[in-house]
Prior knowledge:
The chain is mainly alpha-helical. It has helices at residues 2-16, 18-26, 31-34, 36-61.
Amino acid sequence: MRxxxxxxxxxxxxxxxxPLDVLRTLELDSWFLANIFxxxxxxxxxxxxxxxxxxxxTFNDRNEEKRESTSHSFLx
Length: 76
């Protein structure tokens, strides 16, 4: 049973987390490259936000949304 847990430890510490160890050592040389995952996620989020705003504008231009206050039963 102990060998199983040591195998799991080896898998995570020496294999799966190796890219993160490289990024941690890279931090002393380049802060921007060390935070590459953060930059990628921020770019993806920004692009998704722009796409969402574009979709909202197309629905707004086609007048597909009910804007009167009685469109929901709990409002009126």
